[in-house]
Design a protein that fits this description.
Rossmann fold; alpha/beta; 9 strands; about 300 residues; binds phosphoric acid mono(formamide)ester; 2 domains; binds norvaline; four-stranded parallel sheet
Amino acid sequence: MRNRFKGRDFLTLMDFDKEEITFMLDTAADLKRKWIRREPHALLPGRTVCMIFEKQSTRTRVSFQAASAHLGMQSFYMRPDEMQLGRGEPIKDTARIIDRYCDALVIRTFGQEIIEEFAKYMEHPVINALTDLVHPCQGLCDLLTIREKKGRLEGLKWAYAGDLWNVFHTSMYLAATFGMDFFAAQPPGYEPNPRVLQAAQERAKATGSKIVLTQNFDEILEGADIVYGNTWHSMGGPEKTKEQRIKDFMPYQINEAAMAKAKPDAVFMHCLPGYRGEDMTDEVIEGKQSVVFDQGENRMHTEKAVMALFMQ
Ligand code: CP
Ligand code: NVA
């Protein structure tokens, strides 16, 4: 199985089957154990990874850089406005130059087609650190966290409230792939990407899980094992004013009353950054059901697994 990843791109989890994703999770769990025991795991000494971030980041950027250091690699963080990309150098030229210096590119950008173009012109792996369409690094971390907290994935009910954007798409697809029921709050006027929805529905059909998008918040919360929040203001999100979004999403705020409708042992998850008083309340993120900081830590372990497998 390990050899199946060598040199491939990590652009979306829709490119991988359940067995491959499970192997990535097992690798992350193994690397996490090593990190906890302080066992050396510099598996890629002397390698280099270039990181281009066109949008802000705290978790993804720092976790990739920490994970690179643990693996014995050097990482370079680049902002497009500091690169010739920002002055109009074509992606295809930039990609081929980075490919000559570095063993992988980690990139956070807008359209999926941008990372696809980098991947087309690079021999080395391209790793998606978030696009408008998907956030596969987040998805892998979320599965690891759910597996740790609930001991399984199949048969769980995942309630999602927040923007119908990258994290939503990845969560929905993964839930369906792993046999979880995915219930999401859908304020009027917000639609997921139809291509991802269709792909997730096909997966759900195969695994027998449900995908339900509804305006009824109670319906998503009732019996939920996971209550998952996300910002209402995604970077590069659909054009609506901040005020309009607050008005549209406020009925779906994850507060204590909402948590009380889920299972008593439900966990609260959030990809972060979260905004107290909007997508969740201080009581919920600081409450005993919240696992968001364990979840955030897992970003480092899953990203390390991705680099260890794809850059081997
Ligand atoms: N969840 C996540 O990707 O966080 P950052 O935007 O801080 O990287
Ligand atoms: N949906 C959010 C996720 C941030 C990690 C965004 O795209 O801004």
